[in-house]
Amino acid sequence: MNKPIIHAFDFDGVICDSAVETAITGWKAAGRIWPDMQSEMPEALIDSFRRIRPIIETGYEAILAMRMLQQGDSIGDIYQGYTDKTATLLQQAQVGIDDLKQLFGDTRDQWISENRPQWIAMNPLFAGVAEKLKRLEADSWYIVTTKQERFVRKILKANDISLADERIFGLDRNLSKPRVLTDLLAKHPGQSFHFLEDRLPALQGVQKHPALASVKLFFALWGYNTREDKALVAGQHDISGLNLEDFLS
Fold first, then answer.
1. Structure pTM?
2. Count of beta carbons in the 10 Å neighbourhood of residue 234
3. Could you report the per-residue pLDDT of 143-198, keeping only the tens digit for each?
4. Which among 42, 55, 181, 214 has most CB atoms closer than 10 A?
5. Which residue positions does the secretion signal occupy (predicted)?
């Protein structure tokens, strides 16, 4: 009998449409650094955040991104100068990346403790994805994400999706996605291994590792990526663009 294909899925932008929740959490957390952000978040910033979401690799960066938007930086300015702007904000606030990770997680925890149904509602799964995951064999898929694992578990549980804790690889482990994939590949010798991700830089990072050459790479066209990303993937043969309908089927 043929062995099942092993799937590794990114979470935000592939399974979960978390952009609104990430923006709000980023704003709430930023208010604990910059007092002038302790007011209600302007609703217009959610659309702006969605437009810059593709540049964000890890959730805590939303704290800095929301500060940039609140300060009036344009979408184009943020894309062009993101690294420098991030460094400047970190220096001005006298905080480090580990501080922001902790703050972002703590802010989410507080929101969940105060209003869990609201937090869950702000983290909807993309249409049809829950049913897709429930059809998969429990031992045939993993989640490989930069999200903290406890939040992934809460969202899956709220959608009645069962996945063992040891099959969720998140920010807590301090491992890069290529490292996680390398370890998982070793656990499944002789099996086809697919990785589905919505960030092109993450897929390109996997391509840099010869040990992962056998992993088939899929680009989630419905996720947090740009038209430029989609155009680049369309011209490649080693990364396959995948739309949501084909994924669900």
1. 0.95
2. 11
3. 999 999 999 999 999 999 999 999 999 999 999 999 999 999 999 999 999 999 99
4. 181
5. none
Does the domain spanning 6-17+124-248 belong to CATH 3.40.50.1000? yes
Q: Which residues contact 100 (CB under 8 A, 6 or more apart)?
A: 29, 60, 61, 63, 64
Q: Where are the domains of the chain?
A: 6-17+124-248, 19-121
With a CB cutoff of 8 Å and minimum separation 6, the contacts of 212 are 178, 181, 182, 185, 206
In one-letter notation, the amino acid at residue 45 is L
User: Residue 92 and residue 95: Cα distance in Å, rounded?
Assistant: 8
Please tell me the distance from the alpha carbon of residue 36 to that of residue 27, in angstroms, as a whole number: 11
Q: Which of 12, 9, 11, 10 is nearest to 26 (CA)?
A: 12
Residue 136 near residue 61 (C-beta atoms within 8 A): no
Residues sharing a CB contact under 8 Å with residue 1, sequence separation 6 or more, in sequence order: none
Cα separation, 116 vs 111, whole angstroms? 7
